[in-house]
Write a structure and sequence with these properties.
The chain is mainly alpha-helical. The chain has a domain at 12-56. The chain is built from 2 helices and no strands. It has helices at residues 12-29, 34-56.
């Protein structure tokens, strides 16, 4: 069985930003409750991943010791 491979047309940063924005928009359309909280958590995690990727790919990042 072979692996499916994708050539992404957008950077990881852009994909994470789009995902976070879509999750926030979806959350705004939902009434307060667990489903809305879940969408907001997804957006928060995507933002965190975006910041971590930005930090890890910065020229000043140092590997952990």
């Amino acid at each position: 069985m072979s692996r499916r491979r994708f050539n992404h047309t957008e950077s990881l940063q852009k994909r994470l930003a789009n995902f976070a924005a879509e999750a926030r928009e979806k959350a705004l359309r939902l009434p307060p409750g667990p489903e809305r909280d879940s969408e907001l958590e997804k957006a928060r995690r995507a933002d965190m991943a975006q910041h971590l990727d930005e930090w890890a790919s910065s020229p000043g990042a140092k590997p952990p010791t």
